[in-house]
What we know:
Elements: E1 4-16, E2 18-22, E3 32-42, E4 45-46, E5 54-58, E6 65-73, E7 76-88, H1 100-109, H2 123-130, H3 138-152, E8 154-155, H4 166-172, E9 174-175, H5 177-190, E10 195-201, E11 211-219, E12 225-230, E13 242-247, E14 256-259, E15 262-274
Parallel strand pairs: 8-9
Antiparallel strand pairs: 1-7, 1-15, 2-6, 2-14, 3-4, 3-7, 5-6, 10-11, 10-13, 11-12
Helix pairs in contact: 2-5, 3-5, 4-5
Amino acid sequence: MRARRxxxxxxxxxxxxxxxxxxxxxxxxxxxxxxxxLVVHLDGSELPEGARPxxxxxxxxxxxERMHVLTGVPQGExxxxxxxxxxxxxxxxxxxxxxxxxxxxxxxxxxxxSRYCPSDELxxxxxxxxxxxxxxxxxxxxxxxxxxxxDRLVYTSGSSTSFDGAVQTMLRGQxxxxxxxxxxxxxxRALELPARLTAVYAPGLSPMDFHAVAEVRVVRDDGAADWxxxxxxxxxxxxxxxxxxxxxxxxxxxxxxxxxxxxxLQQMTVTAVLDGDLPAEDGGRTVLA
Length: 289
C-alpha cells in the first residue's frame, strides 16, 4: 500500500454561460488519506464568487466519491487544475460496516440494463458462451468474461464515439477502455452478476488518461461477497488504481458534464504515479480501495 500522486488539467472554451460538474477528484476511500486541491481560473483570474466550485458527495458514503459543481460560469477560457496525493494513513476514516440494504439495492439495480450496457440484448449469447451461475462459480464466470473480452477486442484509439455501447463494441471488435468496461459489465449482468463501471486514476497506463474498469460483485463459496476489479484492457496493474467515481456505466462517471450554455474541451492532461515500482499484475482477485 503505497501513495499515489494524481492530477488532471482541463482547458475549456466556455462560449456562453453554463453550469458544469466535474468528477476528477480521487475518492476519499476509507483507510486512505486524500490530500488534494482543485483550482479553477477564468481568463487567468479567479471565478466570480457564485461560480466557484462546490464539493458535493455522490454515491454511497462509504465510497467517498465527490463531484464539484460550478454554476453560472461566464464566457472565457476556463482552466481546471486538480492535484492530489492518495496515501494510506492513520487519519483516514475506518471502513464502514457492511450495509445489507445497499447490497440488496446493488443486487437488483446493477443487474438491470443501462444506456451503454444493454445486458438484456446479450443474455442468450452470454448463456451460450459462458453457462450460468448454476453451473459455474461467480469467480469463474467473471474471469471467463474478462478473458473473452480481452481476447476478442483490439484496443484502438478513436474507434468509438460517445454514443456507442456494449453491443456496438462487440460487433466492431475494437474500442477503448470504456468500451472494454461496458462489454464486461453488460456480459456479467447478462449472467446475473451485479456489475458497475468505475473511473480511476491508473499509474502505469500508457497513453496516460482517465481510465475505466469494471467491478463485479462476486459471491464466494463461504457466502462472503466482494466487488472485484476486472480490466480486460490489461493496460495498468489493478492494485495501483485509485477510484474516482462509480456508476451503472459511463453516463454516471463522466469527468465533465455541462448544462445550459456551451463549451469545448480544448486540452486535457492526466497523470497518475505510484511511489516506487508498479506492482506486478498476477491475474488474481483485486478489490479496489
